[in-house]
Amino acid sequence: MTAPRAGRRTLLAAGLAAAALPRQALGQGGFPSRPVRIVVGAAPGSAPDIGLRLLADRLATLWRQPAVVENRVGAAGNLGAQAVARAPGDGHTLLFAQASPIVLNQHLMRSMPFDPARDLAPVSLLLMTPFILAARPGLGVETLDDLLRLARRAPGRITFATSGATSLPRFAAEQLARRAGVELSNIPYNGSPPALQDALAGRVDLVIDGTPLLAPQVRARALTPLAITAPSRFPGLEEVPTVAETFPGFQRVGWFGLLAPASTPPDLVTRLAADCRAVLADATLRARFLTELGAEAIGSLPEEFARFAAAEREELGDLSRQIGIVIE
Questions:
Q1: Which residues form the signal peptide (predicted)?
Q2: CATH 3.40.190.150 is held by the domain 8-129+253-323
Q3: What is the pLDDT of residues 148-177, one digit of tens each?
Q4: What are the C-alpha distances in Å from 233 to residues 9, 87, 106, 164?
Q5: What is the pTM of this model?
Q6: Could you say which of 3.40.190.10, 3.40.50.1100, 3.30.70.141, 1.10.10.10 is the CATH number of the domain covering 132-245?
C-alpha cells in the first residue's frame, strides 16, 4: 500500500455511529428547497444506476423532495462528473460515482476536463464491492498459493480475463501479480459476460470480476474461487479466503461514493453525509445492496472519504504507470 487508508470495517463503524446524530444538530435547515438532481455516469439498468435508485428513493423520503436520477453516460464517467463539478454548490446537484472519474481516469487520459481532487467535494463513501479471482475448470489449482506456484513455473502463460483493459478488476489482478512477484497475462474483453463465458469454456485460465457475476458460478462449482479482494471475508462468501490472508494489507475493491461541487459549504457537505448514513443504517436497504449488487454499505464521514480517495488516487496512479496504459 502506498498511502494509509481507513479499513472497510472502520469506515462502516464510524458511519453507523454518526447516523445517530440528532437531526436538529445537522444545520442547513433550508435544504433541500427543491428537487435534488443526482448524476450517475452509467446507463439505466446498470449496477451503479440500480444502486443509486435504491439510495435516491430513501433520500427523497428523508428530504421530502424528489431525488431525481440523471444518467450522463460517456468518457468513462467524466461527462457526468464534469457536469456536477461545474454546478452550483447548493446541494441540489450531486454525483454518484465509481472509482474511474474520481481516482483513475486522470492517470489514463492525456487530458481531463476537470480536476476531481480540486473540483469535487467528497461527501460519503457509500458502498464497497470486492472482486473474486476464480479459476477455470481443469486448471488444477484450488488455492491462491497453488496458482502462484503454477505462475512461477510458467511466467506469463497464465491468462486472466477482465471486463476491459482499464477496468478496476484488471488493476486488482495486476496489483496481486506484482505483490506476489509473478507474471500473469491479461485478456481484456468488451464487458463482463464474454469474459465469464470464456473462463467457463476453459479458453482463459482465470477470471476476475465482481461478486454479483461470479458468486453464482462459485456456488454452482462451475469455477474455483481462489481469493476475494476485500480486506476481510465477505458476507455470504465466508468460505472464500481474502488475498490479504496471503499478502497482509492487500485491498482493491470497487466502490460507489457521493460527491458535491467543491464550492458546497462544509456544513452542507456534513449534512448530506449524515443523511446518507441515516438511510444506510436501515437493515432492509443494506440487505438489498448486498443481495442485488454484492455491495456492503459503508456511509463514511466526508473526511474519511477524502482520505480514502487520495490513497486510491496514489495507488492506482502507481499501478497505471507500471502497467503502461494510456487512453488516447
A1: 1-25
A2: yes
A3: 999 999 999 999 999 999 999 999 999 999
A4: 11, 39, 31, 26
A5: 0.88
A6: 3.40.190.10
